[in-house]
Amino acid sequence: MRSRGKAPAARGIRQLAQHLNISIGTVSRALNNKPDVNEETRRRVLAAAEHLGYVANQSGRSLRQGETKVIGLMIESSQEVVENADNFFLGVTSGLQHCFARHKLDLLMLPCPADEDPREYLKRMVARRVVDAMIISNTQRIDRRIDLLSRAKIPFVAVGRSLSPGKFPWVDLDFEGVAERAVERLVAHGHRRIAITAPSTEANLGYLFVDSYRRALERHCIRFDPSLVIRVKSSEQGGYQAAHELLQLEDRPTAVILIYELMALGLYRRLMESGIRIGRDLAVIGFRDAPRARFLQPSLSCFRMSLYDLGIALGQMLLSNMPAYRASYPDGGRNIIWPLELVPGESDTFEVGLQPDRLAK
């Protein structure tokens, strides 16, 4: 016996039409707000749909319309990424979702396992028609995903530039500007032996960072020393390893510039273990003001940016490359180098020659 007052479970539009004793076509047109349905019928259909818990078969509708209303965000998934996760993608996705929500588009995170070829992973997503468009991150020097998406004619935006052939939309952080301003600041304090960290992978950002660092040194007539480019994993552990390698150098630097925000945590720990005083024996400039690094002492000089606004810019650029939304974003197709603002701290303020040179011992 059916419980009194309990709504029957509706399985689909057919059951809804039977409940109302009207045609499936009329129910469908009412649910889709078609103008050829009178208001009383529309009201009855919507009320019954809510009462019966009707949910539209989106997969079937997507197949008919040739779209999923879903945007994919492909990210790297590994133990290192999970253990060292900060709020970068959380902040970016907040801006993306704000942008997509006005068009009733959903955002789907697509974590690619570290032991799988990113192109093969993406190829599988494309074959399954999981999404209408893609945002790819961790862009490589030569990134085969770009050619795959271009050939498949799937709208996409890359978080980062690449040397891959062809024109494609991208938004990238201003790695050149960060390296240039960091070197300028350190040189102004008398530093000549300036080290830098770089990813141990083929991520294009590492090449941009190192090339800009090298050019900045040349402008100040400082010889580029390859031993001062420390290639490590972009993680806390990488920062710890970078500090360890700096301590092993015979001619140690007086300053270091980090490329990844959480590296500062590991670097601080290793230097403290060795009795090196940051801000007095070694100047440190971090990359971004990640929440987990905000309470370091001495306070870290680093760079600030709005992740939320970056997400909105990414979303608008992607929509400007999708035919259905292009007209709403006439200015969204230009590639962007995203600026970062230097936030001075206490980690790099000492003047070389005015402090005991303990690191050089």
- Strand adjacency order, main sheet: 2-1-3-4-5-11
What percent of residues are in strands? 15-25%
The main pleated sheet reads as: 6 strands, parallel
Quote the average pLDDT: 88
Total DSSP helices: 13
Stretches where pLDDT falls below 50 for ≥5 residues? 1-10, 355-361
Structural class, please? alpha/beta
Principal-axis shape equals elongated
Rg of Cα set: 27 Å
What is the H/E string? HHHHEHHEHEHEEHEHEHEHEEHEE
The helix content, as a percent range, equals: 25-40%
Would you write up a description of this structure?
It is built from 13 helices and 12 strands. By secondary structure, it is α/β, with parallel strands linked by helices. It starts with 12 loop residues before the first helix and ends in an 18-residue tail after the last strand.
SSE layout and pairings?
Elements: H1 13-20, H2 24-31, H3 39-52, H4 58-65, E1 70-77, H5 79-83, H6 88-101, E2 106-113, H7 118-127, E3 133-136, H8 144-152, E4 156-159, E5 170-173, H9 175-188, E6 194-199, H10 204-219, E7 229-232, H11 236-248, E8 255-257, H12 263-273, E9 283-288, E10 301-304, H13 307-320, E11 336-338, E12 341-343
Parallel strand pairs: 1-2, 1-3, 3-4, 4-5, 5-11, 6-7, 6-8, 8-9, 9-10
Antiparallel strand pairs: 10-12
Helix pairs in contact: 1-2, 1-3, 6-13, 7-8, 9-10, 11-12
